[in-house]
């Protein structure tokens, strides 16, 4: 039943984005651990139903990898993006804070593009290999691998780009006032390109895994 998958994607994306937004507003130093952990537990909670993407770039990678069809991908994208915006609005209501959009120009734009491309690719590539590969069927470590990838990204590039590595998080960050509308394209372009590259990389490295 397709509707179940979309509901799971909405729930998982909501809690991921809410955690990102709340920790950003509060300014906790444990944000990378919180964000990586919520992704891990939500992947375990919903992975058996939807695959636990919670990220339009991951869904794009799964589409290129031929794990899902276009119809499901569109359903996933709608669920993820709507849930992300709703989560951002809830954060703004429950946490009285004000964020100043991250200023980006010149070389900083290029740096953000590179790091968002690299770590979105890493996240998508990890998901494809631990959660969709026939060499790792029914394994118990897929949620840990995905969650730790996001945690590493948050620690490594959080101070540079915010470690969005997820179009739903990127859109939510604009709603939250963390990113500026004028620079959102840099994040989205990097994330989309990374998702496509990860999908093709998996296919090239696993030619017999259809």
TrEMBL record:
PROSITE patterns: MIP (PS00221). Keywords: Membrane, Transmembrane, Transmembrane helix, Transport. PANTHER family: AQUAPORIN NIP1-1-RELATED, AQUAPORIN NIP2-1. The keyword Transport applies. It comes from Planosporangium mesophilum. One of its GO terms (molecular function) is channel activity. This is Glycerol uptake facilitator protein. The gene is glpF6. It is found in: Membrane.
